[in-house]
Amino acid sequence: MKKRDIILVAAVLILAGGIWLITRVFFNDSGGQLRITVDNEIYGTYDLKQDQEIQIGTTNTCEIKGGKVTMIQADCPDHICMHSAAIDKDGGTIVCMPNRVFLEIVGQEDGGVDTIAQ
Amino acid sequence: MKNKIAFLGLFAALAIILGYVESLLPVFIGIPGIKLGLTNLVIVFILYLYSWKEALLISVVRILAIGFLFGNLYSILFSLAGGVLSLFVMYFMRKIPGFSVLGVSVAGGVTHNIGQLFVAAFVVTNFKLMYYLPVLLVSGVVTGLLIGMVSGEIWKHVGAYIRKNNREKL
Fold first, then answer.
1. Contact call for B133 and A117, based on CB within 8 A
2. pLDDT digits (tens, 9 = 90+) for A105-115
3. How many other CB atoms are there within 10 angstroms of residue A99's CB atom?
4. Does any domain span residue A111?
5. What are B50-66's pLDDT values in tens digits?
6. Is A37 found in the same domain as A16?
7. Same domain, yes or no, for A49 and A81?
8. Domain match, A61 and A14 both
9. Looking at the predicted complex, does its ipTM rise above 0.90?
10. How many CB pairs under 8 A join A and B?
11. Contacts of B140 in chain A (CB under 8 A)
């Protein structure tokens, strides 16, 4: 192994580390947004990074905390939505059927491998 | 001339077999897209024995044969982009003094991955695939080093033998 070989290997590794850092710092938290749909109409879109409580009409309240979304209050009889697992930037939905409230994650990164990549 | 055609046929067959062997291996260390690049052994060898023209010929024959046998249209496209790009980079690396076969092979491995990634990003029109670039760069270095070591040894021994016995016929 000659000196220039070592320089080449080091340069490529540094480049890889640099790109990795850049994507980490600048792009990785472009995670996703919470879209709330009520009665088939979009009620609002919220950033997952911002912790907040969202009052949905008069019937439901959901909460974004630490990038996770949960339904914390609903006036429906069964409360299935409140017992649904929290959804985060990897996607998922929480549905409150009686009030026709639909929480979903949009703009998330594609997880997994598609058929083209095999 | 006759010897050359025979040699090239032999090397094309060898490249196809190596491609088949590689397709039998499970996805390397669990990350899709990372391959050992066994066929690059042959390509590096041809590049040193003949020139880029012969290496390109073997590379294209190999990619088409492997693609039709085991792959699909996309795998052919990916392989062509990676193979042709890496071949020309290796050719120029060889021209630059100061690089051994290791450096040439590493450059080939890395640019092979880059070429494939760009075609993949173009095909799925999703440039988020560039997240993948660091992984592929590192894997290109590692597999390039491995392939470079082996092809360096092959070149030293088999290459010397071929050149000694076929000096005027090559």
1. no
2. 877 544 445 55
3. 18
4. no
5. 889 999 999 999 999 98
6. no
7. yes
8. no
9. no
10. 66
11. 12
